[in-house]
Amino acid sequence: MSKKPVYVLGINAYDHDTSACLLRDGEIAYAISKERITREKHDSGFYQEIIDYCLDAEGISMDDLDLVVRNCYILPVEEMERRLTFQGALFFMDEEERAQASRHPLYFSKSDRVVTISHHLAHAYSAFAACPFEEGAVMVVDGVGSYRSDVTEEVPPDGTPHPLARESESFYKFEGTRLETLKKVWLAPCRGFFSEEFFNMAGLGALYSRVSTYVFGNWNKCGELMGLAPYGRPDRIKPLLSLKDGELDVPDWTEEFNQPWLPDSSKKWEASPSMPHWEDMAWRVQDDTEKALISRARWLRETTGAKNLCIAGGVGLNCVANGKIVREAGFDNVWIQPAAGDDGIAIGCALYGHLAILKQPRSFVMKHSYLGIPYKDEEITEVMGNRLIRLQTTSKVSTDICGETARLLADGKVFGWFQGRSEFGPRALGNRSILADPRPGWMKDRLNARVKHRQPFRPFAPLVLAERAQEVFEGEEESPFMLIAKRVRPEWRDRIPAIVHVDGTARVQTVSRETNPRLHQLLEAFDALTGVPVLLNTSFNVRGEPIVETPGDAVECFLGTGIDYLALHDRLIAKNRLHGILAPLMKSYSEMSAMIRKGLNEE
Predict the structure, then answer these.
(1) pTM listed for this prediction
(2) pLDDT for 483-530, tens place per residue?
(3) Residue 171 burial by Cβ neighbours in a 10 Å radius (0-12, 13-18, 19+)
(4) Are 41 and 545 in contact (CB under 8 A)?
(5) CATH T-level assignment (fold) for domain 7-119+346-357
(6) Which fold, 377-576?
(7) What is the CATH number of domain 132-336?
């Protein structure tokens, strides 16, 4: 009789990027962010859908779980749920979710198998417990973590921070399953319009989010801010932060920063006369952040003597800073959690449960982030059987989907590429991607105009055969999770201009045969045709929407954009002449239905 697996469920609860991760005997079986199911970007709230997603995929129930570990950075989960019983907070739970939660066994659970841990501790476990190193150092930097009074790890003497100070930076060393906290940097409580305005606090990630709010009207546009930074003029703005004897100094903002983007402005963002100022602000905060992070990483190496560094926390998604840490901080190896933001908290919670509570040995290495459920060919056939889809498309099952796709890509066609299990984290890594030929300089503008509908300054990323990466990009390190920016070698910049950013860099994903054999085969086929082992890659979505999860999501995005072809597993799909007639009618009907629903809800 076979032994029953040990199941641990990790949950990032209630706050933005609500997510779940299911471990089976210490290895990730499935992980998913709520936004992929609900189609609401950075979705928050209760976690019924994502738990069901993981349990249904594994074919188990709540009764089969040995342990549940949760985190909510705002408050401990138990206190958060108490607050939500008497406090209206639609961002965290609307009326429908309140009813859903009231029937769920995890809501107000008193079970000793349900545990809550603090925020940076979960980030730290998501990094070191999934990395390929036996020992090393961990750096966690994000916008805001748990209150000092809610931290569940043992913290070294650090003065007497206010009980309502929040985590900003945390530094650790690890060996095997043992994790030791070395230092924490706290965000002191601040005055503001609302208490949750962490971006007004004096912290590294908080400041980056403050500039994001200033430039884009949204604290969570840090990726766009990083892309805008190379357009700024160096040193036109005084430093926004500095390190003095290891202490972070963030001066007060003054009246000179008086050009915030107002989302209700009648002018388009791109047409604002404040654009040069915003570009300079982006350059300044990126440069300040890079210098601070490199200084922190060097201190951590000198303090621990470690050769290996792991990184997590939202600031760990800054691939430009990551590239400089890799090259300049002095570590032999750097590993960054692919879901470094708060969706990755679910992974950290689950791994904490496995290692720290169940006292199991480390055995798992996160070699890829393809953690969604595998959709069956029968599900694709069912989607394509829809009458409206049949009227607008032609499709066939290909015996050489990689070869046919490579030929069409080389001919300038844009592809939606849907294969295998979806990626966990914010980056499309070749299973839910839009692909194109990187050789034409006009391809970037075409994708922005016809498909992505996003700001023209934002770069597109390259996929490259891992064994050819050093030929095209500078640096020996692999970058399987698209988390390290590399310089494009001068002799290649004119050959693949669509993926070269204005500063000569690219956010590289190296593709190996081991982790994604089909994507590797596609790159080999394209290389054989063109002599270029690189493809342009961007996430399979349009601006403001999550990356597609299901075959139905993929078809909907394909039909609603200027994507030329769609590869769903081995099925090659094209649009026919009727699509040009039906698509505008369906869009008008959808918009009218949305208006009617909105009107009914307001009555």
Answers:
(1) 0.94
(2) 999 999 999 999 999 999 999 999 999 999 999 999 999 999 999 999
(3) buried
(4) yes
(5) Nucleotidyltransferase; domain 5 (3.30.420)
(6) DHBP synthase (3.90.870)
(7) 3.30.420.40
